[in-house]
Amino acid sequence: MTVKQVLIFDSGVGGLSVCAQVVKINPNINYSYLFDNACFPYGELEHNFLIQRITSLLVSFTEKHPVDLIVIACNSASTAALQALRSRLSIPIVGVVPAVKPAAAMTENGVIGLLATPATINRAYTQELITQFADSAQVLKIGSTELVKLAEQKLQGLTVDKQQLQDVLQPWLDLKEKPDTLVLGCTHFPLLKKEIAACFDNKINLVDSGKAIAQRVYQLIDEQAVLEAVNIHQAYYTKAFSSQKQHLALQNSFKNYGFTALEFYSEC
Q: Which of these is catalytic: 19, 186, 199, 268?
């Protein structure tokens, strides 16, 4: 049986949190990673531009590289462009949505915090998830691009600014009845799990979609009969880094996730 080729896609490094789960549950795949840092962060982009950009980029990539399945490891991209992508590509595409349903089942005090990008917070689809699965809970929302950038900086080897993180979460930290469960509604945010949890003086559950996505990939690719994958895992970026130091730091972070190379991807 041919080893399946899975592409993980995000605007930045956040998709690595999903990639780790995908590889853990699907160890016998070949995987690559494409991040569109030329248009980072997606959470601040206009809806129609986002659809056009993601569609163009992924159609181009699949024409040049063998891909059996794509994981859109970005909430902003998934809620905006999944339908358009599926109309253009015939291969399976797995998206990510905020883990509202498991959070609603987990909360004990009925107060859930949804932490996501502004784009995901404002999507009608997000409100539909809340109405469908967490109607009996109080769902508080914070939309932040700052946390996305903090996660990027962490993987570039920089120290996370704890005060900046706390400032973002302060509206919840000031509450008498704080959330006991947080939905990490951006794939960047699991990279900051320890730092986020440390901001709360109460016990806090942090919920993300990584495991559910990995299980869905397993269902779709039917790769369990493959004995061993070829260990060539390539990562690509769409814009040159500002410094060699930044490039090397990110390259080292990607190596920690099993990638053998980090190279520029040209659409041309």
A: 186
Helices (H) and strands (E) in the chain, counts: 11, 10
199 secondary structure, DSSP code: T
Q: What is the CATH architecture of 5-96+211-264?
A: 3-Layer(aba) Sandwich (3.40)
Pairing assessment for the beta strands 30-35 and 5-10 based on DSSP bridges:
parallel
User: CA–CA separation, 110 vs 179, rounded Å?
Assistant: 8
Q: Are 10 and 17 in contact (CB under 8 A)?
A: no
Average pLDDT across each block of 10 residues of the chain; the chain has 268 residues. List them in order: 88 94 92 96 88 96 95 91 94 95 96 94 91 96 94 92 96 96 96 96 94 94 56 89 91 93 87
Q: Is-catalytic flag, 74?
A: yes
pTM of the shown model: 0.90
Asked: is 100-208 a CATH 3.40.50.300 domain? The reply is no
Type and span of the H or E element at 115: strand 111-116
Decide if 186 is catalytic.
Answer: yes
Q: Where are the domains of the chain?
A: 5-96+211-264, 100-208
